[in-house]
């Protein structure tokens, strides 16, 4: 894997995790209702959930890159279509992120972690996103150490972002801004996804 490919993966991943979605919602609700400590354990769970998707993604990409060319072309077309589908929804976004509070007593650390982990790990869209993203960026099968390194980075970066989010939501006006203007993050992500899909299609013919 080249450094350019890593930057593409890291950039797309950053925009995806910043964009409002299920992970954002579960962390924000716990931060607002129960405070930073609870949100921190939820964020750790979300980060670890990424590793589940990485296992499926690496297995799929490795199989794809070692099989027949027609299968690779077919997958590339499907992946590009999925990226464009996600981009269309993101570009049409016109609402912010509704931030609501959880009800009841504050969950303990283990329950908070489990909520974050299951929210991410059981989200099938995340698996499809990573599979399409990696299929569009990689043209050779990475080594085992590269797979481990990238997986660790994505899990760490995801957890770090959501820890930071939990802190910001309890320390300043970011929550109010995202509640009103969060759709701009979606739109930026949409442009990036269109560029990735175009790159994927371009690679099929040139």
Automatic annotation (TrEMBL):
Compartments where found: Cell membrane
Keyword set, alphabetical order: Amino-acid transport, Cell membrane, Membrane, Transmembrane, Transmembrane helix, Transport
Cellular component, GO annotation: plasma membrane
GO molecular function, one term: amino acid transmembrane transporter activity
Membrane topology: Multi-pass membrane protein
Presence of the UniProt keyword Methyltransferase in the record: no
Major location category of this protein: membrane
Bilayer-crossing regions: 41-65, 70-91, 117-138, 150-168, 188-205
Pfam families reported for this sequence: LysE (PF01810)
InterPro entries named in the record: LeuE-type
Superkingdom, taxonomy of origin: Bacteria
Name this protein carries in UniProt: Threonine/homoserine/homoserine lactone efflux protein
